[in-house]
Amino acid sequence: MKKISSVFTMFALIAAILFSGFIPQQAHAETPLTPTATNEIASIQLASDVRTLAVINTFDGVADYLIQHKRLPDNYITKSQASALGWVASKGNLAEVAPGKSIGGDVFSNREGRLPSASGRTWREADINYVSGFRNADRLVYSSDWLIYKTTDHYATFTRIR
Predict the structure, then answer these.
(1) Exposure pattern of 145-158 as b/e (b: 16+ CB <10 Å)?
(2) Where do the catalytic residues lie (predicted)?
């Protein structure tokens, strides 16, 4: 009987030690992420940053954004903002000093009078289809009362798109 009591006591003591943390338990190794799991996590992170990562620089994309938000998309910066970042127009270095950005928001003077004028109306311009290097001839020109025109020949002709 004493032997059974000793075995039972020993068993109880071992159980108590295990459950009380006196014997360090083996650390659980984290399950390594599979390529699929890693891609899913990256997709989730990208999805949360879509607003900041989206580059909108097509005629229709920018025109739609202007109509909906009454401002240019976040990927546009003015010439003075670009210059402050180190942009030099003659070097064609905008993509180097401001990756993902396009020039837009500066006043367009309409000196040649090719766009309709009205009292109090001001025009602004935005580069379209810019990727890198020197700016191209594609521009979207929009007014303070939300008329929107495009030019693909650097202001020689305009087509109303909104």
Answers:
(1) eebbbbbeeebeeb
(2) 125 (proton acceptor), 154 (proton donor)
User: What's the rounded Cα separation, in Å, for the pair 100 and 103?
Assistant: 10
Return the structure tokens found at 57. 């620089």
CB 45 within 8 A of CB 38: no
Domain boundaries, given as residue ranges, for the chain: 2-48, 56-160
Q: Return left, alpha or beta for 144; rule: phi > 0 is left, psi -120 to 50 is alpha, else beta.
A: alpha
Rounded to whole angstroms, the Cα distance separating 158 from 156 reads 7
3-state secondary structure of 74: coil
Which helix or strand (DSSP H or E) is residue 131 part of?
A: none
> How far apart (Å, rounded) are the C-alpha atoms in residues 105 and 82?
12
Residues carrying an active site annotation: 125, 154
The structure tokens listed for 34 are 């599979």
Q: What is the pLDDT of residues 110-154, one digit of tens each?
A: 999 999 999 999 999 999 999 999 999 999 999 999 999 999 999
- State CA 71 to chain mean position distance: 16
> How is domain 56-160 classified at the architecture level of CATH?
Roll (3.10)
Region 83-100: mean pLDDT is 97
Map residue 108 onto helix, strand or coil.
strand
